Amino acid sequence: MDLSKKKAQKKIMAGERPILNATIANSTDKATQTLIKAMNKCWIHNPEKRASARSIEEYLDKALIQLGVYSKPAE
Predict the structure, then answer these.
(1) How far apart are the first and last CA of the chain?
(2) Cβ neighbours of residue 32 under 8 Å, at least 6 residues apart?
(3) Average pLDDT, 10 consecutive residues per value, the chain (75 residues)
(4) For residue 63, how far is the Cα from the chain centroid?
């Protein structure tokens, strides 16, 4: 479905979000589910409850380490 920018903005302002493809949404892959969870944190309509960019970064860092994708370099 193609939406004009204005229509898309109205839908977002009304709290609507795109529907995730069922194959992706129902994936049992841990990395995919981690990304879906991060995406859903960003889609919370109330800005006071919505995750900050920093909290998403921290969540993904932790998740990538737990998944064995990488180890965080020493600071």
Answers:
(1) 45
(2) 24
(3) 81 88 94 95 93 96 90 67
(4) 13
Instruction: Judge contact between 60 and 34, C-beta under 8 A.
Output: yes
The 3 state secondary structure assigned to 2-53 is CCCHHHHHHHHHCCCCCCCCHHHHCCCCHHHHHHHHHHHHHCCCCCCCCCCH
Torsion angle, CA of 13/14/16/17, rounded to 10 degrees? 10
Inter-helix orientation angle 30-42/53-66, to 10°: 170
Are 41 and 57 in contact, with CB atoms under 8 Å apart?
no
Burial of 33 (0-12, 13-18, 19+ CB in 10 A): middle
